[in-house]
Design brief:
By secondary structure, the protein is an alpha/beta fold. It has three domains: 2-256, HUPs (Rossmann fold); 283-417, Isoleucyl-tRNA Synthetase, Domain 1, CATH 1.10.730; 446-495. The protein has helices at residues 37-55, 71-80, 84-101, 117-129, 158-161, 203-215, 229-244, 275-281, 286-298, 310-331, 345-361, 366-386, 391-408, 428-434, 440-443, 448-463, 467-479; strands at residues 2-5, 10-13, 21-26, 59-64, 133-136, 139-142, 179-184, 199-201, 219-225, 249-255, 258-260, 263-264, 306-307, 483-486, 492-495. Helix 2 (71-80) crosses helix 3 (84-101), helix 9 (286-298) crosses helix 10 and helix 11 runs antiparallel to helix 12 (366-386). It is flat and about 80 Å long. Residues 420-427 and 431-444 have low confidence and may be disordered.
C-alpha cells in the first residue's frame, strides 16, 4: 500500500513496524460541543483506513483521544454553571451516539487527557531536565530552538514563522514560537499538582503523552484533519522527538475540509451545523441517513476538500438506491441452478474485486473504489436481463458486494431496511437556520407531559400579559424541537 505522507510530502510505501500489526493514533475531538460534519469526515477516513487494514488480515491498535480539559470546556462549564466533567461527559456521550449513527466503530483505546496526568507530567519533566523546556512562574514552555528540525511537517522555517504571524505577546518566552506545556492554575479552572505548581497541561503535550502511553515512543501512523498540521502536530513532533531522541510517528496522514459554497464550514460564516442536525432533519430512517452520509463523504478523495450541499446528499442517496435495487433483484433469482461456466458474473466480480483493492491500496482512493462498484452494478444489471441466475448465485453476488462494501462501511443493511423511494431530506438551509446543534440532545428527551405543563405555564403568562415570559417558554420549547401554534380562541396546540 502507498499512503500520502505529510511528513515527506510524497506518496510512500507503507510498511508497519511489526508484520501484520499496525499502531495508529488519531487526534479526537475537544468535547465542549456537538460534532460537526468536519469531525464526521475525519472519523470516517480513519475508520475506513482501519477497516482496510483489518480486511487485509492485520491487527490494528487504533487509539483516538478525547481532549476533556481545555479553555472552551472551561468557558462552557462556567457559562452553564456546571463542572467541566459534566460538560465533557455530556459531549463524549453525544460523540459516541453520532459515531454509532454513522457506523463508525469505537477505537481500540479512547484515552482522556484528565486520566493521563501522570503520563503528561512525566513527559514534561523529561523535557525540563534535558533542557528542551523551561519554567517561568509556574508555567512550563517548550523551547522550539531546542529542536532544530522544527517546521519539518508543515514545511515552514522557524524564522519565516515570525513574519506576519499572529503570535501571542508573552515576554516570558525565550522565543515567540515557544508553546505552553503546563499552565499555572487560575481561579475557576480545574488544576492538578505538579513539580511546577498546581495547573493543567497545554493541548499539544496531551496527545504526545497519550499516544506514547498506549502505542509506544514510535508508532506507524498519526492522523487528523489538515487544520492540525500546524501548530498541533508540528508541536507534537518537536516535543516527542526532543524527549525520546526517536522518530515519533513514521507516517502522518491528514484529511481535507468539508466546504459549503466553496468555503470551509465554520460558525463565523454561518454555515455551520452538526452531525445530529442532519439526522434530526432527515426523513430517511437513521440507518439510511448514516450510509448516505458515508457514501457522500467517501465519493471524494480524503485529501481533497468535499463540497456539501442538498444535491450532493440526494445524489448519494440515489446512487445507493441503485445498489439496493440490484440487491433486491439478486434475491429474486430463479429457483434453479445455472451453469457457472456460462455465467460471466463470477469473472466480472473477481475483476472488480482486484480493481477495488488496487484503488484502496493507492492512498485509500475511495472514489475510484466506489466507481468500480458502480461499474459492476451496471454490468450485473445488464447481464441479469440476458442470463438466468439462481437464488444461490444471487446470494453469492450479494455477499461479494457486502464484502467489498464492508471495507467502506457500505451495503451492510438488509434490503427491507433501505427503501429507495419513500423518504426525502429537508434542505440544509433549513437545518442551518434552525440552529439545532445547541438543543438536539434535549429534543429526544422532553416528554409530552413536560410539554403540556410548559404550555399551561405559558397560557397563564399570556393571561397576565407577561408576554416576555410567554416568549421565553416558546423559544425554550422551539429549541427542543417543539412548535407551538396559537389559535384565535386563545388556546394553543403543539407538535414535534
Amino acid at each position: 500500500m502507498k499512503i500520502h505522507n505529510t511528513l515527506t510530502g510524497t506518496k510512500d510505501s507503507f510498511e508497519s513496524l511489526e508484520p501484520n500489526a499496525i499502531r495508529m493514533y488519531v487526534c479526537g475531538v475537544t468535547v465542549y460541543d456537538y460534532c460537526h460534519l468536519g469531525h464526521a469526515r475525519s472519523a470516517l477516513v480513519f475508520d475506513v483506513l482501519r477497516r482496510y487494514f483489518e480486511h487485509l488480515g492485520c491487527m490494528v491498535e487504533f487509539v483516538k483521544n478525547f481532549t476533556d480539559v481545555d479553555d472552551k470546556i472551561i468557558k462552557r462549564a462556567n457559562d452553564e454553571g456546571v463542572t467541566c466533567l459534566e460538560i465533557a461527559e455530556k459531549f463524549i456521550a453525544a460523540y459516541h451516539e453520532d459515531m454509532r449513527r454513522l457506523g463508525i466503530r469505537p477505537a481500540w483505546r479512547e484515552p482522556k487527557a484528565t486520566e493521563h496526568m501522570d503520563d503528561i507530567i512525566r513527559l514534561i519533566d523529561v523535557l525540563v531536565k534535558n533542557g528542551a523546556a523551561y519554567q517561568v512562574d509556574g508555567d512550563v514552555f517548550f523551547s522550539v530552538q531546542a529542536y532544530p528540525s522544527y517546521g519539518r511537517l508543515s514545511k515552514r522555517k522557524l524564522d519565516d514563522l515570525l513574519v506576519g504571524a499572529r503570535v501571542e505577546v508573552n515576554e516570558r518566552k525565550r522565543h515567540p514560537m515557544d508553546f505552553a506545556l503546563w499552565k499555572s492554575s487560575k481561579p475557576g479552572e480545574p488544576s492538578w499538582e505538579s513539580p511546577w505548581g498546581d495547573g493543567r497541561p497545554g493541548w499539544h503535550i496531551e496527545c504526545s503523552a497519550m499516544s506514547m502511553r498506549h502505542l509506544g515512543e514510535t508508532f506507524d501512523i498519526h492522523g487528523g484533519g489538515m487544520d492540525l498540521i500546524f501548530p498541533h502536530h508540528e508541536n507534537e513532533i518537536a516535543q516527542s522527538c526532543a524527549a525520546t531522541g526517536k522518530e515519533f510517528a513514521r507516517m502522518w496522514v491528514h484529511n481535507g475540509f468539508v466546504q459549503i459554497n466553496q468555503e470551509k464550514m465554520s460558525k463565523s460564516l454561518g454555515n455551520f451545523f452538526t452531525i445530529r442536525d442532519i439526522f434530526y432533519k432527515s426523513e430517511w430512517p437513521e440507518s439510511e441517513t448514516g450510509e448516505t452520509l458515508r457514501y457522500f463523504l467517501l465519493s471524494t478523495h480524503y485529501r481533497s476538500p468535499v463540497e456539501f450541499s442538498d444535491q450532493s446528499l440526494h445524489d448519494a442517496k440515489s446512487a445507493l438506491n441503485g445498489f439496493y435495487d440490484l440487491f433486491e433483484r439478486l434475491k429474486e433469482g430463479k429457483p434453479v441452478d445455472c451453469d457457472v461456466e456460462d455465467n460471466p458474473l463470477r469473472d466480472i466480480g473477481e475483476r472488480t474485486r482486484l480493481a477495488f483493492m488496487k484503488a484502496m491500496a493507492d492512498d485509500l482512493n475511495t472514489p475510484v473504489a466506489i466507481a468500480e462498484l458502480q461499474k459492476l452494478r451496471g454490468e450485473m444489471n445488464k447481464l441479469l436481463e440476458r442470463f438466468p441466475l439462481s437464488r444461490s448465485k444471487g446470494s453469492e453476488m450479494r455477499e461479494m458486494f457486502r464484502s467489498m462494501g464492508g471495507v467502506l462501511g457500505l451495503f451492510q443493511l438488509e434490503e427491507w431496511q433501505f427503501n429507495p423511494r419513500q423518504f426525502r431530506l429537508a434542505k440544509m438551509s433549513d437545518i442551518i437556520s434552525t440552529g439545532l446543534e445547541e438543543t438536539a440532545d434535549a429534543k429526544s428527551t422532553i416528554t409530552d407531559s413536560d410539554i403540556e405543563q410548559r404550555l399551561i405555564e405559558r397560557n397563564e403568562a399570556r393571561k397576565r400579559k407577561d408576554f416576555r415570559r410567554a416568549d421565553e417558554i416558546r423559544e425554550s420549547l422551539a429549541g427542543q424541537g417543539i412548535t407551538i401554534e396559537d389559535r384565535p380562541d386563545g388556546t394553543s396546540r403543539w407538535k414535534r
